[in-house]
Amino acid sequence: MRIRKQALGDMNIVGAKVEMKRKEIGLKQKDLLTQLQIRGIDLNASGLSKLEGQLRGVTDYELKAIAQALDVSVNWLLGIEEE
After folding, report:
1. C-alpha distances in angstroms, 48 versus 52, 80, 82?
2. How many domains does the chain have?
3. What is the pTM of this model?
4. Which of 15, 30, 58, 74 sits a CA distance of 20 to 30 A from 46?
C-alpha cells in the first residue's frame, strides 16, 4: 500500500470518507473504478486518487455512484449522518 505523499486538499469533503470506506471493505482503487464504470461514471485512477486526496471536486453523479458502489448513503459521505 502506498502512503500519501501530498497533504489532503480542500476541493471536496467526501474524499477521505471514500478512501476510508474503500479500504475498510477491502476494495482496491481499480475495483472501485470498475464499479463506477458499471454505473456510468468514467473516472480514471488519477482522478480517483485526486478525489480521495480531496484535490479535485466531485460531481453529483459521481457522488451518487460512489455511494452505491460503497453501499453507503450520500448523506454519510457528506458527513450529515452516521453510517
Report:
1. 6, 22, 23
2. 1
3. 0.89
4. 74
d(CA 12, CA 83): 19
Residue range(s) defining the domain that contains residue 45: 15-77
DSSP state for residue 25 in the 8-state scheme: T
d(CA 83, CA 73): 8
In this structure, how many other beta carbons lie within 10 angstroms of the beta carbon of residue 39? Answer: 14
Q: For residue range 8-66, list pLDDT tens digits in order.
A: 889 999 999 999 999 999 999 999 999 999 999 999 999 999 999 999 999 999 999 99
Cell readout for 41 is 461514471
Q: Hey, what's the cell of 15?
A: 474524499
